[in-house]
Amino acid sequence: MQFIQNFSFVAFYDTTLSLLIAFVLGTLIGAERQYRQRTAGLRTNVLVAIGAATFVDLGQRMGGNVEAVRVIAYVVSGIGFLGAGVIMKEGMNVRGLNTAATLWCSAAVGCCAGGNMITEAVTLTFFVIFGNTFLRRLANAINRIPLNEETGESTFEIRLSVDRKAAPILRELVVDLLEKAQYPVSDVEFFDLSDDCVELVATLISTAIDKEEIEEVVKALSKRKDVYHANWESSTKE
Protein backbone atom coordinates (compact mmCIF):
# COMPACT_ATOMS: atom_id res chain seq x y z
CA MET A 1 0.00 0.00 0.00
CA GLN A 2 3.01 2.27 0.35
CA PHE A 3 3.14 2.42 -3.44
CA ILE A 4 -0.37 3.90 -3.61
CA GLN A 5 0.52 6.55 -1.05
CA ASN A 6 3.76 7.50 -2.83
CA PHE A 7 2.37 7.38 -6.36
CA SER A 8 1.82 10.71 -8.08
CA PHE A 9 0.78 10.85 -11.70
CA VAL A 10 2.53 14.20 -12.23
CA ALA A 11 5.78 12.90 -10.72
CA PHE A 12 5.50 9.67 -12.71
CA TYR A 13 4.95 11.63 -15.92
CA ASP A 14 7.96 13.81 -15.14
CA THR A 15 10.18 10.77 -14.53
CA THR A 16 8.96 9.04 -17.68
CA LEU A 17 9.66 12.13 -19.75
CA SER A 18 13.19 12.40 -18.28
CA LEU A 19 13.94 8.76 -19.05
CA LEU A 20 12.50 9.05 -22.55
CA ILE A 21 14.66 12.08 -23.30
CA ALA A 22 17.73 10.29 -21.90
CA PHE A 23 16.90 7.24 -24.03
CA VAL A 24 16.54 9.23 -27.26
CA LEU A 25 19.65 11.34 -26.71
CA GLY A 26 21.69 8.33 -25.59
CA THR A 27 20.57 6.57 -28.76
CA LEU A 28 21.81 9.44 -30.91
CA ILE A 29 25.23 9.41 -29.25
CA GLY A 30 25.46 5.63 -29.20
CA ALA A 31 24.45 5.25 -32.84
CA GLU A 32 27.54 7.18 -33.94
CA ARG A 33 29.76 5.02 -31.72
CA GLN A 34 28.09 1.84 -33.01
CA TYR A 35 28.59 2.95 -36.61
CA ARG A 36 32.32 3.27 -35.97
CA GLN A 37 32.39 -0.16 -34.29
CA ARG A 38 33.63 1.16 -30.96
CA THR A 39 33.80 -0.97 -27.80
CA ALA A 40 31.03 1.01 -26.10
CA GLY A 41 28.34 1.32 -28.73
CA LEU A 42 24.62 1.96 -28.93
CA ARG A 43 23.33 -0.05 -25.96
CA THR A 44 26.10 1.00 -23.59
CA ASN A 45 25.62 4.72 -24.19
CA VAL A 46 21.84 4.39 -23.88
CA LEU A 47 22.11 2.50 -20.59
CA VAL A 48 24.61 5.01 -19.21
CA ALA A 49 22.31 7.93 -20.08
CA ILE A 50 19.20 6.23 -18.68
CA GLY A 51 20.99 5.08 -15.54
CA ALA A 52 22.35 8.52 -14.81
CA ALA A 53 18.93 10.08 -15.42
CA THR A 54 17.26 7.59 -13.09
CA PHE A 55 19.67 8.16 -10.22
CA VAL A 56 19.43 11.94 -10.49
CA ASP A 57 15.63 11.88 -10.77
CA LEU A 58 15.38 9.53 -7.80
CA GLY A 59 17.63 11.71 -5.68
CA GLN A 60 15.68 14.82 -6.64
CA ARG A 61 12.30 13.30 -5.83
CA MET A 62 13.40 11.89 -2.49
CA GLY A 63 15.71 14.62 -1.23
CA GLY A 64 15.33 17.68 -3.44
CA ASN A 65 17.95 19.53 -5.44
CA VAL A 66 20.63 19.21 -2.78
CA GLU A 67 20.42 15.44 -2.80
CA ALA A 68 20.31 15.41 -6.61
CA VAL A 69 23.58 17.34 -6.75
CA ARG A 70 25.12 14.81 -4.38
CA VAL A 71 23.97 11.96 -6.61
CA ILE A 72 25.48 13.69 -9.66
CA ALA A 73 28.85 13.80 -7.90
CA TYR A 74 28.70 10.02 -7.41
CA VAL A 75 27.68 9.50 -11.04
CA VAL A 76 30.68 11.53 -12.24
CA SER A 77 33.12 9.46 -10.20
CA GLY A 78 31.37 6.14 -10.82
CA ILE A 79 31.33 6.48 -14.60
CA GLY A 80 35.13 6.70 -14.47
CA PHE A 81 35.34 3.01 -13.58
CA LEU A 82 33.15 2.13 -16.56
CA GLY A 83 35.23 4.31 -18.85
CA ALA A 84 38.44 2.66 -17.67
CA GLY A 85 37.10 -0.66 -18.92
CA VAL A 86 37.14 0.49 -22.56
CA ILE A 87 40.66 1.92 -22.46
CA MET A 88 43.26 -0.50 -23.79
CA LYS A 89 47.03 -0.15 -24.15
CA GLU A 90 48.66 -1.76 -27.16
CA GLY A 91 52.42 -1.26 -27.02
CA MET A 92 53.05 2.48 -27.05
CA ASN A 93 49.50 3.26 -28.20
CA VAL A 94 46.44 3.80 -26.03
CA ARG A 95 43.01 3.09 -27.49
CA GLY A 96 39.53 3.86 -26.20
CA LEU A 97 40.11 7.29 -24.66
CA ASN A 98 37.57 8.94 -26.95
CA THR A 99 35.01 6.20 -26.27
CA ALA A 100 35.53 6.58 -22.52
CA ALA A 101 35.06 10.35 -22.82
CA THR A 102 31.87 9.76 -24.82
CA LEU A 103 30.52 7.54 -22.04
CA TRP A 104 31.29 10.33 -19.59
CA CYS A 105 29.34 12.76 -21.77
CA SER A 106 26.44 10.31 -22.08
CA ALA A 107 26.26 10.25 -18.30
CA ALA A 108 26.22 14.06 -18.30
CA VAL A 109 23.34 14.01 -20.79
CA GLY A 110 21.46 11.62 -18.52
CA CYS A 111 22.10 13.83 -15.49
CA CYS A 112 20.70 16.82 -17.34
CA ALA A 113 17.63 14.86 -18.40
CA GLY A 114 17.11 13.50 -14.89
CA GLY A 115 17.42 17.01 -13.48
CA ASN A 116 14.69 18.25 -15.88
CA MET A 117 17.21 20.31 -17.85
CA ILE A 118 15.98 19.04 -21.21
CA THR A 119 17.29 21.92 -23.33
CA GLU A 120 20.75 21.55 -21.81
CA ALA A 121 20.68 17.79 -22.45
CA VAL A 122 19.80 18.31 -26.12
CA THR A 123 22.50 20.97 -26.51
CA LEU A 124 25.13 18.73 -24.90
CA THR A 125 24.13 15.86 -27.19
CA PHE A 126 24.63 18.09 -30.21
CA PHE A 127 28.13 19.04 -29.07
CA VAL A 128 29.08 15.41 -28.36
CA ILE A 129 27.96 14.24 -31.80
CA PHE A 130 29.62 17.25 -33.43
CA GLY A 131 32.87 16.46 -31.62
CA ASN A 132 32.83 12.81 -32.65
CA THR A 133 31.97 13.44 -36.31
CA PHE A 134 32.91 16.83 -37.73
CA LEU A 135 35.96 17.35 -35.52
CA ARG A 136 37.19 13.93 -36.65
CA ARG A 137 37.94 15.41 -40.08
CA LEU A 138 39.82 18.31 -38.51
CA ALA A 139 41.88 15.95 -36.37
CA ASN A 140 42.77 13.84 -39.42
CA ALA A 141 43.81 16.96 -41.31
CA ILE A 142 46.05 18.08 -38.45
CA ASN A 143 47.64 14.63 -38.23
CA ARG A 144 48.67 14.87 -41.89
CA ILE A 145 50.70 18.05 -41.28
CA PRO A 146 54.43 17.14 -41.19
CA LEU A 147 56.16 17.73 -37.87
CA ASN A 148 58.44 20.76 -37.96
CA GLU A 149 61.45 20.06 -35.77
CA GLU A 150 62.27 23.77 -35.53
CA THR A 151 58.95 24.75 -33.99
CA GLY A 152 57.70 21.60 -32.29
CA GLU A 153 58.86 20.29 -28.94
CA SER A 154 60.09 16.71 -29.20
CA THR A 155 62.57 14.39 -27.55
CA PHE A 156 65.83 14.08 -29.50
CA GLU A 157 68.52 11.44 -29.17
CA ILE A 158 72.06 11.22 -30.52
CA ARG A 159 73.02 7.57 -31.09
CA LEU A 160 76.61 6.46 -31.57
CA SER A 161 78.16 3.02 -32.05
CA VAL A 162 81.62 3.44 -30.51
CA ASP A 163 84.68 1.56 -29.38
CA ARG A 164 84.19 0.35 -25.82
CA LYS A 165 87.56 1.72 -24.63
CA ALA A 166 86.83 5.17 -26.03
CA ALA A 167 83.29 5.35 -24.60
CA PRO A 168 84.11 7.50 -21.52
CA ILE A 169 86.02 10.03 -23.61
CA LEU A 170 83.31 10.16 -26.25
CA ARG A 171 80.68 10.68 -23.58
CA GLU A 172 82.39 13.90 -22.49
CA LEU A 173 82.91 14.94 -26.09
CA VAL A 174 79.24 14.48 -27.00
CA VAL A 175 78.08 16.48 -23.97
CA ASP A 176 80.62 19.22 -24.72
CA LEU A 177 79.68 19.53 -28.41
CA LEU A 178 75.95 19.65 -27.67
CA GLU A 179 76.35 22.23 -24.92
CA LYS A 180 78.40 24.42 -27.25
CA ALA A 181 75.50 24.19 -29.71
CA GLN A 182 73.24 25.22 -26.80
CA TYR A 183 71.46 21.87 -26.60
CA PRO A 184 71.74 20.63 -22.99
CA VAL A 185 71.83 16.88 -22.40
CA SER A 186 69.43 15.32 -19.91
CA ASP A 187 70.94 11.81 -19.88
CA VAL A 188 73.65 9.64 -21.44
CA GLU A 189 73.33 5.85 -21.49
CA PHE A 190 75.44 2.96 -22.74
CA PHE A 191 74.14 -0.29 -24.25
CA ASP A 192 76.25 -3.34 -25.09
CA LEU A 193 76.44 -4.22 -28.78
CA SER A 194 79.42 -6.60 -28.71
CA ASP A 195 82.56 -7.25 -26.71
CA ASP A 196 84.36 -4.32 -28.33
CA CYS A 197 81.46 -2.06 -29.22
CA VAL A 198 78.82 -0.17 -27.23
CA GLU A 199 75.99 2.16 -28.18
CA LEU A 200 76.06 5.62 -26.66
CA VAL A 201 72.65 7.32 -26.45
CA ALA A 202 72.55 11.00 -25.48
CA THR A 203 69.06 12.33 -24.79
CA LEU A 204 68.51 16.06 -25.10
CA ILE A 205 66.26 18.09 -22.86
CA SER A 206 62.88 18.45 -24.64
CA THR A 207 63.17 21.57 -26.78
CA ALA A 208 62.90 22.94 -30.31
CA ILE A 209 65.95 22.38 -32.49
CA ASP A 210 67.64 23.49 -35.68
CA LYS A 211 67.97 20.37 -37.82
CA GLU A 212 71.18 21.56 -39.49
CA GLU A 213 72.89 22.24 -36.16
CA ILE A 214 72.20 18.71 -34.90
CA GLU A 215 73.45 17.22 -38.15
CA GLU A 216 76.69 19.21 -37.85
CA VAL A 217 77.30 17.70 -34.42
CA VAL A 218 76.62 14.20 -35.75
CA LYS A 219 78.97 14.74 -38.73
CA ALA A 220 81.75 15.93 -36.43
CA LEU A 221 81.39 12.82 -34.28
CA SER A 222 81.18 10.41 -37.24
CA LYS A 223 84.62 11.55 -38.47
CA ARG A 224 86.33 10.00 -35.46
CA LYS A 225 87.95 6.60 -35.95
CA ASP A 226 86.53 5.28 -32.68
CA VAL A 227 82.97 6.09 -33.82
CA TYR A 228 81.60 3.35 -36.09
CA HIS A 229 78.18 4.84 -36.71
CA ALA A 230 76.38 8.07 -35.75
CA ASN A 231 72.84 9.31 -36.23
CA TRP A 232 70.07 11.23 -34.49
CA GLU A 233 66.31 10.71 -34.19
CA SER A 234 63.30 12.45 -32.69
CA SER A 235 60.03 11.37 -31.12
CA THR A 236 57.03 13.29 -29.85
CA LYS A 237 55.92 12.20 -26.35
CA GLU A 238 53.09 14.67 -25.73
TrEMBL record:
Entry annotated with the keyword Amino-acid biosynthesis: no
Protein topology in the membrane: Multi-pass membrane protein
Pfam families: MgtC, MgtC_SapB_C
Subcellular localization(s) per the UniProt record: Cell inner membrane; Cell membrane
GO cellular component: plasma membrane
Domain MgtC/SapB/SrpB/YhiD N-terminal positions: 19-140
Keyword Membrane attributed: yes
Residue intervals of the MgtC-like C-terminal domain: 157-232
Biological function: Virulence factor required for growth in low Mg(2+) medium and for intramacrophage survival. May be involved in regulating membrane potential by activating Na(+)/K(+)-ATPase.
UniProt similarity note: Belongs to the MgtC/SapB family.
Protein name as catalogued: Protein MgtC
Source organism of the structure: Commensalibacter papalotli (ex Servin-Garciduenas et al. 2014)
